[in-house]
Fold this protein.
Amino acid sequence: MFNITDGRIYMNDDAGKMIAEVTFPNLDDNTIIIDHTFVDDSLRGQGIAAKLMLEVINYAKTHNKKIKASCSYAVKWFDKNKDEYKDIYLG
């Protein structure tokens, strides 16, 4: 479903248009920062943005990184789920 690269997780539609994306560059050797989340209007209401957050968490765990967020969606999402991800989310 998602394409995963260092610093970016995204999804394209059948025509190759990017329709969902989260970017998370390295802040330092141990931390990534979620700085952008995008979900196309055609996917709204399907929980795609939350799935992107879970993919970033899996990426961070796999690469032994902690997470910070500057993207407003990511900040709100982690605020709602802070107890579950307090071991990985630094705020």
